[in-house]
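does this look right to u?? protoporphyrin IX containing FE version
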Amino acid sequence: MNLATDASIPQEEMDSLLLELKQQLRERYPDGKYLRAFHPKMHGLLQAYLDVRTDLPSELESILFTPGKRYEALVRLSNGSRTVASDRKKDLRGFAIKIIGVPGIKVLEGKKNAVTQDLLLANYPSFPPGTFKGTVKGILATSGGLLKKIFFALTHLRTVWRALQSAKHCENLLNETYFSQVPYHYEEQVVKYVLRPKSLAPSCEAKDKDNFLKERLQENLRKSEVQFELCLQKREANDPIHNAAIEWKGPLVVIATLTLLSQEFDTPARRTLGENLSFTPWHTLHDHRPAGDIGIARKKIYEIMSAFRHHDQAVPEPTNFNC
Ligand code: HEM
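got this back:
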């Protein structure tokens, strides 16, 4: 058995989850103009460079992470909740990176020859439900009536506590640290990713009380570029692969720098592209594919939910970051 990848995903749970998510979108957007089932509120689609460390340790070299390699990238920043809401609400914040110019054959049918590769992160170190079954239970319970929610909360105190912790107030997206939360293959190793700011962005006022995260992002990026360090966390002996609720404790190794360019990003073209693009952890080189129970389940979920919201009209992957 391949410890990292072999997780059997129960078909019944998968079917109920997809049915529920599609039904929610139909109800939320009766005109058929579907946004994402999760992370629908976009703060911005940003142009970036990803520069792999020139002195990357040789055991970490891969086709993707080649020392000194510079990639263009597009970054979509979002709130995690299922509905578009005020930034004042406690929430999880998403940081999705589309790396552009990646050679090699990718995993997903229909995207095999694309020159892109995605990496999805959020500003909490673990994934509270832990397993795929736990995730489905939680989603179905929180989609139901009050009694169902109360029953779920009382019977899953720890999960609910962790989920509440993961939804936080956020003052500035540029000052957050983002985590893959779940493990990935890295050639022969299994790792998690962490993206942390190199320095704190200067504070700035915001007038729009419901959309201040975009306003601050624009204000900061108008004045200067902003850098993050992309780090690897190697798996240590007892770090679980199939339970994403448990945080790994190993040290971080910096592998690349992500530079958000100084830019005006809130344009109609950029907003449209941000809505239309899809990010999935399975749009990747085989050597960097997701590992573990949640990772395996996400392959089908993102493919089907993205196709659903696009009414099966595939949107081509970008070949550069100009838009
Ligand atoms: C079984 C667990 C999960 C389910 C059911 C799920 C479901 C989804 C769905 C349906 C979307 C919208 C896809 C689209 O329409 O294109 C999405 C987006 C997203 N998910 Fe997950 N997800 C899960 C786990 C995770 C984990 C572990 C992370 C870790 C960081 C994550 C981060 C994100 C981010 C950042 C986005 C927004 C991507 C974008 O900007 O397009 N998700 N998720």
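The first strand starts at residue 41 and ends at 52. idk if thats expected tbh
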